[in-house]
Amino acid sequence: MIKFSKSYQAMLVVLLACSTSISAIAQLQFPGEGNLKYVDPRIGNVGAILEPTRPTIQLPNQVIRMTPQRADYIDDQISNFPLTVVSHRNGQVFSVKPALATTDQKRMTYDHDLEVNRPWYYSTYLVDNDIKVEFTPGKKAGIFKFSFPEKGGKALILDHYNGGPSEYALSSSKELTGMETWDGVKVYLYGTFNASSTSEKSGNKLLLTFDSQSPKTVELRYALSFV
Question: What is the model's pTM?
Answer without folding.
Answer: 0.84
